[in-house]
Amino acid sequence: DQTIFVTGECGGTSGNSGHIMSGASCKANGAVYPASSAMMNSVKKPKMEQIQADHELFLQAFEKPTQIYRFLRTRNLIAPIFLHRTLTFMSHRNGRSNAKRYGMSDMFLFVTGFFFVALSSHLQLTFTGFFHKDEKPSQNSENEQNSVSLEVLLVKVCHKKRKDVSCPVKQVPTGKKQVPLNPDSNQTKPGSYPSLLVSSNEFEPSNSHMVKSYSLLFRVSRTGRRDTNGLVNGEANENIDVTDTPSRKKRSLSHREEGETTETYVAQMTVFDKNRRLQLLDGEYEVSMQGMEDSPVSKKRATWETILDGKRLPPFETFSQGPTLQFTLRWTGDASGKSTAPVAKPLATRNSDSSMQQQKKGTVKESVSTDIQTRKEQVPCEPRQKLRIFYQFLYNNNTRQQTEARDDLHCPWCTLNCSKLYSLLKHLKLSHSRFIFNYVPHPKGARIDVSINECYDGSYVGNPQDIHSQPGFAFSRNGPVKRTAVTHILVCRPKRTKPSLSEFLESDDGELEQQRTYVSGHNRLYFHSDSCMPLRPQEMEVDSEDERDPEWLREKTATQLDEFTDVNEGEKEVMKLWNLHVMKHGFIADNQMNQAIMLFVENRGAHIIRRNLCRNFLLHLVSMHDFNLVSTATIDRAMARLRQIQEELPDIEEDQQDQTLVSAAACNGNAVTSSGGKQGKRTKSALTD
Amino acid sequence: VVADAEKLKQTEKCCTSMFNTNRQKIMERTDILNQEWKTRRIQPVHIMTSVSSLRGTREVIPLKTLNAVASVPVMYSWSPLQQNFMVEDETVLHNIPYMGDEILDQDGTFIEELIKNYDGKVHGDRGETLSRTNSDASKKFPSDKIFEAISSMFPDKGSTEELKEKYKELTEQQLPGALPPECTPNIDGPNARSVQREQSLHSFHTLFCRRCFKYDCFLHPFHATPNTYKRKNLENLVDSKPCGIDCYMEYPAGVVAERAKTPSKRTVGRRRGRLPNSNSRPSTPTVSSETKDTDSDREGNSMFAEGNSRCQTPVKMKLSGEAEAADWSGAEASLFRVLIGTYYDNYCAIARLIGTKSCRQVYEFRVKESSIIARAPTEDEDTPPRKKKRKHRLWATHCRKIQLKKDGSSNHVYNYQPCDHPRQPCDSSCPCVTAQNFCEKFCQCSSECQNRFPGCRCKAQCNTKQCPCYLAVRECDPDLCLTCGAADHWDSKNVSCKNCSIQRGAKKHLLLAPSDVAGWGIFIKEPVQKNEFISEYCGEIISQDEADRRGKVYDKYMCSFLFNLNNDFVVDATRKGNKIRFANHSVNPNCYAKVMMVNGDHRIGIFAKRAIQTGEELFFDYRYSQADALKYVGIEREMEIA
Q: Region Disordered: which residues (chain A) (predicted)?
């Protein structure tokens, strides 16, 4: 869906080359994006039906850059070019420079320190219910239970000992509970939910084996009519850490009896991964369960995709369709105490698609169905100060707009948590320069006007070394050769103004502030303009292609004069000599002519004498005088100098007397034959109008 | 038919020989290049060690990997230029553009329309060659019927008369060594004849371009002849001292007599403007009479006879015996007539320049020729020397005029053509005035003309609107602006005047590389300041009509180098140009284009819109490429006044 217009020749008449994107990102973009854009469209469907035309325009304006930034986000996750915390305006993301090491919002830093805190805490699980939507409760109410039985096991994967073939796995049953099936959230009282406590002792290192990772295994058994659909769900919740669980030997059995079946659904969640990082924070969770009897998914075949009837489903569809288990997780110091762990918040590196979706869906309050995890987690978030940010998209000549809002300071394009409004704005401005962001203060928070940057400069600003190479001379050097100088910036301390939100306000003068690169220099391979051959470093200094009188032009002036049929050879020859002289020196002023004549005599005098053109040269001088360009004094001086040169030429001097006859004949003869071949077509008389 | 076949064979032969000579030329050049390459220290490095398989052991060979080389963008060939080059309209489509089979298939009408633009004429149609070979066919002059038949068959090749002329031209060329009849023989050659001054100088006068200082220049199709140029000052007309013992001044009687005579004649001579000269000018219609004249010269090669036949006053002064001994060759006589028109009575100087005659001989010859030679003009009575005060006033009125002129509602900028209307002031009938151009130093009008631009008298850099030149979007004229430095330091780039960069070609070093945007791009080597001159946008100068025709093809290619110069002409850098042609378009550019009047020519300067750093790619906004700068001066000025 991305077509990149890198046209063959330079710019030409095309008027829009200004915002042609840089080649690299576009090409990659074209390859990556079809899948995700399709997904975006499916999510946006209801809106398109309402105001389709408007939406078309919106997409037209914002789709392409958004896709580019989404691609770049993914690429930066896989292979980061820089760390955001090293940026000055993101310095608060850098934990190390800060004394409050554990109070950081930076997830990873936090988690490393958390393990020790967690040791003294108990894990409390409160189950809200088991949801399985494809059954209709009203029809089967007489022989259906209202609850299912849930067994929770703590799976400890231990380090291998020498004898072991595979990692020893210990399963510690923590309890069995009856969990309500498809409860109506309005009816059930909050306090009546079944609850389970996993003691902190369980997480302490056991004596016999070093435990590598802990995970919770949920097993729901349900008796009833067999699910004829054979619904298969892949592991949907991203918290189910497939790769980190070394071996999952568990096979849940399905007990088949004649009229009745027992269905078993399982799900596994990692509490601590093998790096001992805590994976489960306080919050409400909804886990997608898997019917085990149909398709035991082995670790090898595990994929991240969700499959429903062969069709691709966005990950969150699973939650509305498949069986899920909802529970609240808390780490408590005592059995009934308060939470000691900080609240889990959406990670910048996770759930990126969900935040993207959410942003596209409209206001957060309306998006009930999809992103449960995010929504639920906001409940414990409540005491934090809430800042609402409205994104107002301007497109179609600023006449139409579409307002969207979200409640956190994540960048909508790359889901980076910027934590501060200033950082967010700065990040948007610097990292997403295909858009123009203008900050407008708003009573509830902030409004950010987003429009397309028509002046986007897609030129290359990266490291010159990455694109710099010198083909063509690899094997043709012998000894040292000159290298191209390349500029590197070691330290750059530009003058920084104090951070202030006012710098994002729309400027009145309309003068677009330019962000120029700090690195300048010849960061590319140049070519000769005549031959398209690479320019070698030693050829850089001289401009080899800017002659005032290129060879073809010198030849052209000669042939053009030769074409005249009514100009004799002597005249032609003097004219050619003079033309070449003028072309070489580029005279521009009348008052240069006296000088020019003298220079001509100096340079070409000997030639004029040898070719016996003295009188023609004199005619030329007189003609110049007739045009008021030279004085008679110059004529005198020039001819005197010519005589002098003539006397200095030894061989001509000897036959001074009959030179007129001999050499003139030679000259004439030559000229005649040469002009005879040329068959001139022009006459000078035709030139005067 | 047999003759035709023969002719065809001949042309074929001609083609082969042409090809061979060309081939040889290329080979020679390659040899030179190879020689040069050998002398360089760069030599191929051996990458493979020889493998000896005698012992049957496996040898290790160093392996060198050739990295893939990225291909460069497409470039169509073009010829480098540093100054514009005017070309005529093409009446024939040179080639049918090829843009890939798909385009031709889906849009066949495009080519048809294109050919229609040229009245269906495509280069290489067989018509022309046929008519040529036919007309050459027989040795005898063919009857008129043949010409009529050809003309009726190929009406586009000209009328019957034209074909006849062409026939004559083509057949007569075949005589070896013969000069065309209208050609003046070489004055340095053995066949030099005694001819009139105007004829001797005719080639130089007609071919010389007073604006480019070149003969048959590339830019100006029509050159003014110098006939009506007035002499600026009367330079050393007569040496006061005799040049030697043989000097004519040693004959006081004669001198006195001559001197007494001259003043009365002087008033008649040159004052009449062009009229006497244009009579004697051998333009095409008068050629026949002239040639007759010179034919008679050829027969009587003796100068005395010629002189006698021509002068009404035969030898009246027999001075001494040595004078008769002097034999005047045709070349000498011609040269004398040329020089007498410049040096008048300064026989010593004339003799010095002729070199082979003493001034006394010259003097005697002059006496013989007295009736036909031109007279030295007296001081120009109608153009008294300027007074300082008057100049001041003039300058002030001009500055006002600049504004008035540009305030006019007209948005059009017309090409400048020197005006030539003798004895008529530059009023509303003057072409310069009607085109809203200033008269330039190339105009034939008086230097006091009210429409002339007076130049600036700045002592600063001429880069603000304080400078009248800058204000009028003109570069400083080195012959008018004498204080700003535009006329100094010809050799160095350090000129105090910053408003003469285009004419001096003070361009920046540009480098070519694949663009960050599209195709090729151009990059600057050194950093430049805001408003600094970067390069002139050069190319072929074509008429607006021609630009329309070419533009159709360029639009199809989606690549155009057309640049509007003024209402009459367009610069096309497709075939000829300089490196700045690779600058891409941007709506947010770092350069801007400005059409300026540079010594009578409109030229396009590319300037820095902001400070540009080393290695930056250059862009300018193609949309404002019109003569906008010239147009909007008036508006800005109005606001300032208000």
A: 169-190, 229-261, 336-377, 669-689
pLDDT at A518 over 70: no
Q: Say whether B585 and A474 touch across the interface (CB within 8 A).
A: no
DSSP letters, B521-542, are EEEESS-B-TT-EEEE--EEEE
**Token output for B205:** 């006068």
With a cut of 70, which residues of chain B have pLDDT below it?
Answer: 1-3, 37, 39-70, 101-108, 125-140, 171-182, 226-246, 248-326, 370-411, 623-642
* pLDDT reported for residue B498: 86
Radius of gyration, alpha carbons of chain B: 32
Complex-level ipTM: 0.71
B503 touches chain A (CB under 8 A): yes
Contact by Cβ (8 Å): B112, B569: no
d(CA B595, CA B566): 8
Question: CA B204 to CA B198: how far, in whole Å?
Answer: 10
3-state secondary structure of B276: helix
Digit-coded pLDDT (tens) for B36-95: 767 665 544 444 555 555 566 666 666 666 666 667 888 888 888 888 999 888 888 888
Interface check for B234 against chain A (CB to CB < 8 A): the answer is no
User: Which string of DSSP letters, residue by residue, matches A388-422?
Assistant: EEEEEEEETTTTEEEEEEESS-B-TTT--B--SHH
Secondary structure in 3-state letters for B65-76: CCCCCCCCCCCC
Please check whether residue B513 touches A, CB under 8 A.
yes
- Closest Cα to residue A623, out of B274, B418, B224? B224
Nearest C-alpha of chain A: how many angstroms from B55? Answer: 30
**DSSP string computed for A167-179:** --EEEEEEEEEEE
pLDDT digits (tens, 9 = 90+) for B353-370: 887 777 777 777 877 776
For residue A333, the model assigns a pLDDT of 67
How close, in Å, is residue A230 to chain B by CA atoms?
54
Tell me the sheet residues that pair with A173.
A153
Q: Nearest CA to CA, how far is B66 from chain A (Å)?
A: 8
Looking at the complex, does the CB of residue B110 fall below 8 Å from at least one CB of chain A? no
Length of chain A in terms of residues written: 689
Q: What is the pLDDT of residue B555?
A: 80
CB contacts, 8 Å: B527 with chain A = 520
Flag if B207 and A521 touch (Cβ within 8 Å).
no
Query: Beta strand pairing status for A122-131 and A324-332?
Result: antiparallel
**Nearest-by-Cβ selection for B353 from A567, A575, A639:** A639
Q: What's the count of helices (H) and strands (E) in chain A, helices before strands? A: 17, 16
* Count of H-run helices and E-run strands, chain B: 21, 14
Cβ separation B232–A628 shorter than 8 A: yes
Could you report the per-residue pLDDT of A158-212, keeping only the tens digit for each?
Answer: 776 666 666 677 788 888 888 888 777 655 565 677 888 877 777 776 555 567 7
Query: Cβ(A33)–Cβ(A2) under 8 Å?
Result: yes
Residue type, B529: Q
Q: Provide the pLDDT confidence category of residue A686 given band limits of 50, 70 and 90.
A: low
| Closest by Cα among A146, A147, A166 to A158 | A166
Q: How far is residue B326 from each of residues B159, B322, B323, B332, measured CA to CA in Å?
A: 53, 7, 6, 11
Q: What share of chain B in percent tops pLDDT 70?
A: 63
Residues of A in contact with B514 (CB under 8 A): 524, 527
Q: In what order do the strands lie in the sheet with B584-585?
A: B533-536, B601-608, B591-598, B619-620, B584-585
Tokens 């939507």 sit on residue: A133
Q: What are phi and psi of B19, to 5 degrees?
A: -60, -45
Which residues of chain B does A674 touch, with a Cβ-Cβ cutoff of 8 Å? none
pLDDT tens for each residue of A611-657: 888 888 888 988 888 888 888 888 888 888 888 888 887 764 444 44
